[in-house]
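Give me structure tokens for this 263-residue protein.
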Amino acid sequence: MPGKTYKIAAIPGDGIGVDITDAAKDVLNTLAKANGTFSFDYTTYDWSSKAYLERGWYMQDDWEAELKKHDAIYFGAVGWPDVPDHISLWQMILPIRQRMNQYVNVRPTRILKGTTAPLAQCQKKPEDLDWIIIRENSEGEYAGQGGTTHGHTQNAIATEVAIFTHVGIERIVRFAFETAKSRPRKKLTMVTKSNAQRHGMVLWDKVFYEVAKDYEGVVEHDKMLVDAMTVRMVNKPESLDTIVATNRKPPMSLLVSRINTCV
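Here you go.
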């Protein structure tokens, strides 16, 4: 009896995204062939920046209905020098995240065998750096709240409002606790900037500690301000395991991206 066929919406995008997607298909197909109990059926969508420049849009009007026909989405990367980044972000990546309710950004971070990384010098052994970084993926600055007034003049005023909801915070924090619970160390660190951002980040802290009550005696937890966290990540990587944070606190985002690039 043939196994299950998983329908995958493949969005290669631009640049290295195309190479990554092609390579990933080869890996997945090899895995499926070796296992013998499942297979993959890919539908590839040319929602690239090249196509955008030719036709004036990234995704067709019925993109949501198209994607919902599939079991999963494999997204490569999008962005090209000829198209401002905010256009590719707000005309493809963020609409998919918001409409498809993709609120969790999970980034495993570790040093793979045979590779080197700057943080290797901070460790006694490679296993000292084995993190799962969980970032909220749909609220905060990604909510798209704000606007520009008098944008055509030197008196232009632009606002960018970060949105945090109790529901949004609770679901990502609970996901982080469950992830930490499933790992050997059962340790979770929350990162915010609640000393300066006294509304949204304070709500993050409040909801985190509310959820933490459900994991007393099961998951060890602590809190770091983002400034101190960047230092701890470099100087004491072995002290961290599972990390949860908002999606766009600049120092945290920068360090996370650099570490993932290196390792």
